Records
---
Amino acid sequence: MYTPEIYKDEDPESIRTFLKENSFGILINQTNGKLCATHIPIELEVNADGKEILQGHISKLNPQAQGFTENDQVLAIFTGPHSYISSSWYDHENVPTWNYIAVHVYGRIKIVDETATIEQLKKLVDKYEANSENPVRVENLSAKTMREARGIFGFEIEIDEIQATKKLSQNRDDHNYKNIISELEKTENPQAIAVAKEMSKCRK
């Protein structure tokens, strides 16, 4: 991922937090000579050796999974808030741009067994049911319903490299930086407001 130095995020804790909060990603690989991509939850976890990995699952009917045995190299892309930045918000003439946060994780994928897949499902469901009024638990699902789990492959991705971009107008002076935040907040657009919040955290 092309990232000018000023926009690189090299803080492991910042990246870790981002991945946990924005875990619906895009898994990309090459299958039969073609690039394939699937939009799925991909969770940052720690394996038995204490090493951070990515975990997820994919349908056995998805042809993308065929490529995992041919070439285990994959790319997982995670995106956060993003917004158009109008150059009318500056006190000088310039070009419009786009602010955003994104993380690319490169690694090697492997399919896990059925037991590990079910454990992954339990963690995933528990995470997203935590605030539900009547939380669903995998352990409480009927045998009939759980037969559907046979239709998926669980996987783990051993992380080789992480590239993180946090493009939030770091190249602007304090006056223009504050004005961008103010203008983003006026839009009432959730994405724009989220970018404004991230910008506020970066520069007090």
---
Amino acid sequence: MPRIAEARPPAEPSSQEQKARQRRILRAAASLATERGLDRVQMQDVAKEAGVAIATLYRYFPSKTHLFTAVMAEQVEQLDGLARPPRPGQDPVEAVCELLLRSSRKLLSRPLLASAMMQSNVQANAATVSEAIRIDKLMQDAVLRMLGIDSPTARDIRLVSLVIECWYGMLSSALNGRLSMADVEEEIRLACGLLLAARSNA
């Protein structure tokens, strides 16, 4: 289980060198978690793999919760980059389904890393781990964009949030061996079809 996030805010990299150092840390953490899983990743091992001092690692990431929530944010940022408004004639709900399915396959291809990210995101307190809020916003914006909703209503936002929460639950169940990939696909399509049918631009 990741250590509970500390109260102090993590440092924000400002220079290109600092940003490159932070990216090395995230890559090192992802690589180690892919091989070992969350519990067997030690912060000192991440620092060594990234070639940084342990104090530097803790300055940017005060806990493993901060670290692996940031790793997940980086993954979700890639997902956000794939989200495009619907093409003429394209079913936007089907487009959302396909995006979530592609992302599910990618995440589940590295189950130990996926589990590390999901556990950390669940543990993250929004008041102290800002990346948790960024993950939610990136996911929400990606789905709204694919639905072609430029000015979402409060109900639109709630419906999209429910779809995302369902998706997280399906991923967790798949990682725990409770759902197969075929089950995940079926349930994603069902959840999107039921929930997004009530959106404002349906």
---
Amino acid sequence: MHLLRGLLVIATRYPHLSQPARAVITQRWSRHLLHILAIKVRVHGTPPAVYPANTLVVANHISWLDIFALNSVTVSRFVAKKELRDWPLAGFLIKNAGTLFIDRNNRRDASRVNEQLAKALQDGGCMAVFPEATTSDGRSLLPFKASLFEASRLAHATVQPVAIRYLTPGGHYCAAAAYAGDTSFWQSLCLILASRAMVVELSYTAAIPPYDTALASRFQLSETARDAIRDALQLPAEPVVAAE
């Protein structure tokens, strides 16, 4: 019922609303979804506004839940792999919520998306990317792809790193949320429901201000954001070269 209500709002009211009004609806819908799934959000650090202007949110990627966890605090438009556009029902929601789609198998597509991403940021948007470009089990941090950080340089945007991890109510690692490997969406949903209760922890680290994003290379921005997220997740340091 919650999904159907979201589809109805997206198909009727959403296109006619201002961005601030859309942000409020998206935040409420995301919070309600997490409540239905018995997932509590725990926030560390200081989040920016509900829809901070000219801000690129970057986070590690564990689950399809990441989008709704982030949107329950700071609402963003996301950059996602093009395959999500074809998901039944969910694809319609994601597409009509303003998501930009990228073909991960086409290196040249990053240039097109960067232009659209920079334009959205310059127009006052809050955008979000997962620089790992795939999901992990949450116990490690994959190398970041630096290509989409170029948009933040072009737009002189603030870069806001956010570390995500899923825990049991007792504070231990929770594997149920991980949407990695050969796990299907249905299997993932069943694992989440079977967990009965879960905590998603969002750690907002110090933002990288526009002045610094304009002067740094996309590789430097990628490395700085990754270091901040790695430290927030309390993972050991290791030398990583940012990829395109």
---
Amino acid sequence: MATAQGDGTAPRQAGIREGRAASAIRRARVPADAERSTAPRRAEAAADRIAALAGAAEAGARLGTKDELRTMCQVSVGTFNEALRLLQSRGVVTVRPGPGGGLFAAEQSPMVRLGNSVLALDARQTDVADAVRIRDAIDPLLIEDALWHASPADIADLRRQLDVMRAAADAADPDAFVRANWGLHARIAAISPNPLLRSLYDSLLEIIESHTLSVLPISGLSLPDYIHERHALHVSLVDALDARDRGRAIELTRAHNTSVNRQSEHPTS
């Protein structure tokens, strides 16, 4: 009567059962763990897909219900909710409840517009707006310093950066163009002999870059024409610096900031 317990058979059998159960649980968890690991990427992909719809629609246009868009993106409810959070934080969509509700293309604020492209920003858009305003205010100081202190090597570096901008413009790649553009302005700032001014500009540019998530096209506007126009303006600016033509350089700086503020009030100038 005590033999089954005394010979250790029952504990061994219980251990086997527990081991099998644990293995089954581990196997069951693999898909869930894999899904969790890919969920952020799937949420980003879903957000990008819906953002493209919003970018091609008029402000206020209905994009669809949550269920319709989730089905289109082929993601789970949790992943879709994360995508929706990203879209709302970037100001891309608005959500309206009730009959006739759903997701709607948001009215983009001026500070997230760049002519025919939108920089998708994270939640700290106010920080970016302030950084852009201060950056625009100190641009003339940096141009004055470049007029006085730019060496032939500096001008050569600026022209190489213009080549990078040109390549991005020819490829109609707004993201690469924006970053090459920032690189050109950072290189102009590096010419200044004033360490405080250089440090301030670098800090402002870091704020702008660190809160920019992506560059999205806006329908109805010619992206290639716009970025080629911006490239030409910067070529003229570097030419003015090379010629030490202060009047022309200041005029172009004013036109540069005025056109950016009029079209977008955004840092991709």
